[in-house]
Inverse folding.
C-alpha cells in the first residue's frame, strides 16, 4: 500500500493485490489516516464492479462522520452505479476538486 500525502489529502494506491487484501490493509492503516481526507486510487484493479465499491461503504461512512472526505477514483464504476453515500470519480483531479468543495462546505457550516 502506497500513501501519497499532499496537504490534508492522502491518496492511497495499491499495487498487485486483490480487493479483500486492499480492504484489510486499509482497515489496518486507518488509524494513521483518519485525520486526513482520503482518496482511494483503484486504477490498478482491472475488474471492479459496483458491488466491489460498496465494500468501502462502511469505512467511507465512518470517515465522513469524522468530518473528512472519502473519494474513490476508478473508471470501471460510475457514480450513478453506487449509492450517494459513497463518492466515485473517474480522475484524481476530480477527487481533489470534490474534497476542496467539501472543505469549503464544512468551513461554511453547510
Amino acid at each position: 500500500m502506497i500513501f501519497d500525502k499532499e496537504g490534508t489529502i492522502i491518496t492511497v494506491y495499491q499495487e498487485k493485490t486483490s480487493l479483500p487484501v486492499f480492504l484489510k490493509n486499509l482497515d489496518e492503516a486507518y488509524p494513521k489516516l483518519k485525520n486526513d481526507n482520503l482518496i482511494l486510487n483503484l486504477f490498478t484493479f482491472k475488474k471492479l464492479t459496483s458491488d466491489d465499491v460498496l465494500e468501502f461503504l462502511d469505512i467511507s461512512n465512518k470517515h465522513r462522520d469524522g468530518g473528512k472526505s472519502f473519494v474513490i477514483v476508478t473508471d470501471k464504476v460510475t457514480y450513478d452505479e453506487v449509492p450517494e453515500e459513497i463518492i466515485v470519480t473517474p480522475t484524481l483531479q476530480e477527487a481533489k476538486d470534490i474534497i476542496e468543495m467539501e472543505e469549503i462546505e464544512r468551513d461554511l457550516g453547510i
In short: The first strand starts at residue 2 and ends at 6. The chain has one domain: 2-108. The two ends are 34 Å apart (CA to CA). Strands lie at 2-6, 9-13, 37-41, 70-73, 87-89.
